[in-house]
Write a structure and sequence with these properties.
The chain has about 350 residues and is an alpha+beta fold. The chain has helices at about 35-45, 70, 115-165, 215-220, 340-345, 345-350, and strands spanning about 190-195, 205-210, 225, 235-240, 265, 270-285, 305-315, 320-335. The protein has a domain at about 145-175 and about 180-350: Sortase (Sortase, Chain: A, Beta Barrel), CATH 2.40.260. The chain is built from six helices and eight strands, in the order H-H-H-E-E-H-E-E-E-E-E-E-H-H.
């Protein structure tokens, strides 16, 4: 007797047969693998275990609190599908969100390290040095620049006041000898009485001369000062003056530029005294014999009318004194006007605009 296969059985499955070659009446076909998986999933669901889903996507478990061991492990990499899509679903479907495994930590501010006593001392010393340097720079600017501006303004105002006073006064009477100069009248302490013109120092150079050689107010604000007890302009003897070489208008800044034959004109109420430079000397500050009627010869009276100008030497130092000597060579009364060497200068034009001689 031949045996035949049932057409309803899939390939790979067999059924129990009776001894006679036919299926027993009470027998059931074996369940398929899909059926077994379904039954296992139902049993697991009843017991509260995670349900296994057999599909094309990986299983999805409900979010649960991770254990300490799981929290310390690095999160698994999520594979990306075609076109950057996750294999958990297609475009447009709601995708389950994976729980964040790591939060971004906020950067804590760095605590400043406290300064020790040595570092603190060095830092404080450095700040003091910087402050002292700035103060020194400001002092130098004030000393070398601002004092010149202020002194020049004071000199202009003083010269204007002096020429206005001269315009309201009558000059002294002239002597019978036209070559005999009128001696200027003595002035009170710290009082201006004349104006200096030195063409070698510039066409616009002029400075007032006052009685006394004190720094305040004469040398710092009034121009040049006359040494007490020295001769007056036009008088026989030694007309001696002092002035700054730097700062406060620096009236004798160019004293070392004088050359033999250069003229120094001194204007007073009575007229103009022209002194001609002849030589110079460099001395120590205590060599007061240069102020004698005959310089360097205090025992002689002499017959010459001498002008002696003194200033500090070298520049920016008071270690020595630069001395320039000149001798009276001309005299012009105020009624005759200014001499030719200054009458067309900017300096005299500025001084005489207020009614000077």
């Amino acid at each position: 007797m031949s045996t035949s296969h049932s057409a309803d059985q899939p390939v790979g499955h067999s059924s129990a047969r009776s001894a006679g070659g036919s299926v027993a009446a009470g027998d059931q076909p074996l369940p398929s693998r899909r059926e077994l998986r379904r039954r296992e999933a139902e049993a697991a669901a009843v017991q509260g275990e995670p349900t296994a889903v057999y599909s094309d996507v990986p299983p999805v478990f409900e979010q649960s609190q991770p254990t300490h061991a799981q929290a310390t492990q690095a999160p698994p990499a999520v594979p990306q599908g075609h076109g950057g899509q996750s294999p958990q679903g297609r475009l447009g479907e709601d995708q389950p969100q994976l729980p964040p495994t790591r939060q971004r930590r906020r950067r804590q501010p760095t605590a400043k390290e406290p300064l020790g006593p040595i570092r603190g001392t060095v830092r404080t010393f450095g700040e003091l040095c910087i402050t002292a340097g700035l103060v020194l720079i400001l002092f130098v600017v004030w000393q070398l620049w601002w004092t010149d501006i202020q002194a020049n303004r004071d000199n202009e105002v003083l010269a204007d006041e002096l020429t206005q006073d001269w315009a309201n006064q009558d000059p002294n009477e002239l002597s019978d000898d036209p070559d005999e100069p009128v001696v200027a009248e003595p002035a009170g302490k710290n009082e201006a009485f004349g104006i200096f013109y030195i063409p070698r120092f510039g066409d616009d150079y002029y400075r007032t001369v006052a009685e006394g050689v004190d720094l305040e107010p004469v040398l710092n604000r009034m121009g040049v000062g006359r040494y007490p007890n020295s001769a007056m302009p036009g008088e026989v003897g030694n007309f001696s003056i002092a002035g700054h070489r730097v700062t406060y208008g620096k009236p004798l800044n160019q004293i070392a530029n004088l050359r033999p034959g250069d003229e120094i004109i001194v204007q007073t109420k009575d007229g103009f005294y022209t002194y001609t430079f002849r030589n110079f000397d460099i001395i120590l500050p205590d060599a007061v014999e240069v102020l004698s009627p005959v310089p360097d010869a205090p025992d002689f009276k002499g017959k010459d009318r001498i002008l002696t100008m003194t200033a500090c030497n070298p520049m920016f130092s008071a270690r020595e004194r630069y001395v320039a000597y000149a001798e009276l060579t001309d005299w012009t009364p105020a009624t005759d006007g200014a001499p030719d060497n200054i009458k067309d200068s900017k300096a005299y034009d500025k001084v005489s605009k207020n009614g000077g001689a």
